[in-house]
Design a protein that fits this description.
198 residues, mainly alpha, 6 helices, 0% strand, elongated
Length: 198
């Protein structure tokens, strides 16, 4: 449990930095994919706080707290999906052309390498604790790695070939993945069961 909390705090700290960089770079470049990536970082930080809450005080051995934490994390996926989908469609319909963001490209490349390591560590701890909430939070980190790859595609395509529409299309992909992950977290699929891990 100490390790779960320590990994959660590590993720919270990084996601705060990541969100600040991504949102600032995204606003500067008018990139919805980059802003969505920053919003995902904030939501991942929230999921980390849920895990810290889950393993504090009397909640440590509470099945009800496990289920509540699992559903809060699922709700955070839904929130991300809704925000990114709406902004992506607005960008596509308005034909808003994002600028090149080298800072965003560098951030996405760094995150692509580091997030799978954090996700793997959280998955092992979640397995040892039998905690679907901890595993779901780790899956958010793995989603972050997938998003990094998609973000690199969108930002790189725009930088190299001026394919502005790749940015919102990649963001829609991000929204779809977040929606799927939210459904799985809500059902407790991170622990291999359909009805939760209580």
């Amino acid at each position: 449990m100490r390790r779960a909390r320590a990994l959660a705090w590590l993720g919270i700290a990084w996601h705060g930095i990541e969100a600040a960089i991504a949102v600032a770079a995204g606003l500067a470049a008018s990139s919805i994919a980059l802003v969505g990536f920053g919003a995902d970082s904030l939501i991942e930080g929230f999921a980390g706080l849920v895990v810290v809450w889950r393993f504090g005080g009397r909640r440590v051995s509470s099945d009800a707290s496990e289920r509540r934490a699992q559903r809060l994390i699922a709700a955070s996926f839904y929130l991300l999906a809704a925000y990114v989908a709406i902004e992506s469609l607005r960008t596509l319909l308005g034909a808003d052309h994002p600028q090149v963001s080298w800072l965003g490209i560098g951030l996405a490349a760094f995150t692509l390498v580091t997030m799978p390591l954090l996700a793997s560590a959280k998955a092992r701890v979640g397995e040892a604790l039998g905690s679907s909430a901890t595993k779901s939070e780790g899956r958010q980190n793995m989603l972050c790695a997938y998003l990094s790859a998609a973000l690199l595609l969108g930002l790189g395509g725009n930088a190299a070939w001026g394919l502005w529409w790749l940015d919102p299309v990649v963001a829609l992909f991000i929204a779809g993945v977040a929606l799927r992950e939210g459904r799985q977290a809500w059902r407790g699929d991170a622990c291999g069961c359909e009805t939760g891990c209580a």
